[in-house]
Specification:
Blueprint lengths: L1 E5 L8 E7 L3 E2 L1 H9 L3 H9 L8 E5 L8 E6 L8 H15 L6 E5 L10 H15 L20 E5 L3 H26 L7 H9 L7 E5 L1 H7 L2 H7 L7 E8 L9 E11 L19 H15 L5 E11 L11 E3 L5 E3 L7 H16 L4 E5 L3 H7 L4 E5 L2 H14 L3 E3 L4 H5 L8 E2 L8 H10 L7 E5 L5 E2 L9 E2 L4 H11 L4
Parallel strand pairs: 1-7, 2-5, 2-6, 6-7, 10-11, 10-14, 13-17, 14-18, 15-16
Antiparallel strand pairs: 2-3, 4-5, 8-9, 9-11, 12-13, 15-18, 19-20
The structure holds ligand BES, manganese (II) ion (MN) and zinc ion.
Length: about 500
């Protein structure tokens, strides 16, 4: 999808998108088009019962006096209520409406609407972001889809009096959209294509953007004592990897980095504690935390963010085999703490235990934030709307909540406490990898992770529900949502980046 910005002019083909507001108000360009078309727009919206509510659309075909194939009148709702995320939603709605329309070019005219708090350049940029995010499709393996069902839209042209400013406003958002698309692609790829080694190779492509990438193989991890992570991958024919990404964009490249850690289980069968067959295919999405971290690094490098960030992802495949770990095994993690593995399907916490410890030990980061599709229980608690947020630090938690509101990638704070911590005590080792039956399952997992964090400010995001889903969302269709990239990019931009 090519996005460009230029001065207002009537398009010669494709769709021409104009805006309208509640109370039969047309934006300036819509009004002048209505004059050219002899009142056809007003007649059409009246006939359609169009109210100008946000996201409402009316199509006019074959209008006499216009070369474009179609006029689309789009409602903005009350202008004073529009903020960037709402404009993104409007852009996404138009993309969904026109994506397979057969039209190649979509031209959108942005006017100075009275009451609007956003500048025209921000309006244009955020509309384009929403449009681009919603235009995402993963069609790599569909070889027989008829042309008519494929996305037809190839370019989006935003018309504004300030095209230069709009381009500047859009450039960083485009880099973020690249990160989101990368995260979605990685999740969409099945387990036979993306496994730890091929995944690490994909991540190495970020070197082209200036990200330092280091890949640790099993031998290197064994030397470091990362037996918890290794235990998860030991049943698989695919070798485990730990990938470390560094983006040093701050003026002082030695500045203490921010650290993001992701669970990258490329397929979670459950291991010897095998999952039921129904829906097991969905466990190719069990690398959602890592994909968010990789997408974030892509976004930061793409927009040359002035900040030092390290991303660490633990890549493993959880499989049953004669080499797999068994329930009852006791393993010694890199931290020295021992773990009784009572359920091999509680594997994400084992991977993160070593990845967190390694990150803290090597980088002494300003803070650590981990993301993981960690527990089914968080879906029971929060559905697909909020990620579960656990933290030992109030500032970190508040800032993540604010960034969540600003990007519509929401988080909901969950508790940590000594009482919950007791639930993971083991009789034979320092801890066990499950809590007390089905009680507070997401909290037990978070308490487990906390035992691998010393005094470092830390937050854990359980994104099992928000990483993917079957529901059609405003900014994305069913499948992987790419959750976390925009949240963390915004969190960094608002609180940690040099100006
Ligand atoms: N990857 C799963 C969590 C998950 C479940 C993510 C459903 C997305 C959708 C995780 O590894 C897991 O299996 N967790 C177990 C933990 C239990 C054995 C303590 C769970 O949630 O059932
Ligand atoms: Mn599991
Ligand atoms: Zn898992």
């Amino acid at each position: 999808m090519k996005v460009s910005f230029s001065k207002p002019r009537l398009p010669k083909s494709g769709a021409y998108v104009v805006f309208a507001l509640p109370g039969n108000k047309l934006a300036a360009s819509a009004e002048s088009l209505d004059k050219i078309l002899d009142g056809a727009i007003r007649r059409a919206i009246k006939g359609a019962g169009f109210k100008g509510e946000r996201g409402e659309t009316v199509d006019l075909f074959g209008a006499n006096g216009l070369e474009a194939d179609r006029v689309v009148v789009v409602g903005l709702g009350r202008a004073s209520e529009l903020d960037p995320t709402k404009v993104e939603r409007v852009g996404a709605g138009v993309a969904k409406h026109l994506l397979t329309s057969g039209l190649k070019a979509i031209t959108v005219v942005v006017d100075d609407v009275p009451g609007l708090k956003l500048s025209p350049e921000d309006f244009a940029a955020h509309f384009a972001l929403g449009f681009r995010l919603r235009s995402y499709r993963f069609d790599r393996y569909r070889t027989k889809e008829p042309e008519s069902k494929k996305p037809s839209v190839k370019k989006l042209v935003m018309l504004t009096d300030v095209p230069g400013k709009a381009e500047v406003a859009y450039a960083p958002l485009d880099a973020v959209a690249d990160g989101v698309a990368l995260a979605r692609d990685l999740l969409n790829e099945p387990g036979n294509v993306i496994y730890p080694e091929s995944y690490a190779k994909e991540i190495q492509k970020l070197e082209q953007l200036g990200v330092r990438v280091e890949v640790l193989d099993e031998k290197a991890m064994r030397k470091l004592g990362m037996n918890a992570l290794l235990a998860v991958g030991q049943g698989s024919a695919n070798e485990s990897k730990l990938v470390i990404m560094e983006w040093n964009g701050a003026r002082d490249s030695k500045d203490v980095p921010l650290a993001f850690i992701g669970k990258g289980v490329t397929f979670d069968s459950g291991g010897i504690s095998l999952k039921p067959g129904a829906g097991m295919d969905e466990m190719k999405y069990d690398m959602g935390g890592s994909a968010a971290v990789v997408g974030l690094m892509r976004a930061l490098a793409g927009r040359k963010a002035r900040v030092n960030v390290v991303g660490v992802v633990g890549l493993v495949e959880n499989m049953p085999s004669h080499k797999a770990q068994r329930p009852g095994d006791i393993i010694r993690s890199m931290s020295g703490q021992t773990i009784e593995v009572l359920n091999t399907d509680a594997e994400g916490r084992l991977v993160l235990a070593d990845a967190l410890w390694y990150t803290q030990d090597r980088y002494k980061p300003r803070f650590m934030i981990d993301l993981a599709t960690l527990t089914g229980a968080i879906i029971i608690a929060l559905g697909h709307e909020y990620a579960g947020l656990f933290s030992n630090n109030e500032t970190l938690a508040k800032r993540l909540e604010a960034a969540g509101q600003a990007t519509d990638e929401l988080v909901w704070r969950m508790p940590l406490s000594n009482a919950f911590d007791k639930d993971i005590d083991s009789k034979v080792a320092d801890m066990k990898n499950i809590g007390n039956g089905r009680e507070a399952g997401s909290i037990a997992a978070a308490q487990f992770l906390q035992r691998f964090v010393n005094k470092t400010p830390w937050a854990h995001l359980d994104i099992a529900g928000t990483a993917w889903g079957k529901k059609d969302r405003t900014l994305v269709g069913p499948g992987p949502y790419g959750y976390g990239v925009r949240l963390l990019d915004r969190f960094i931009a608002d609180y940690y980046e040099e100006k």
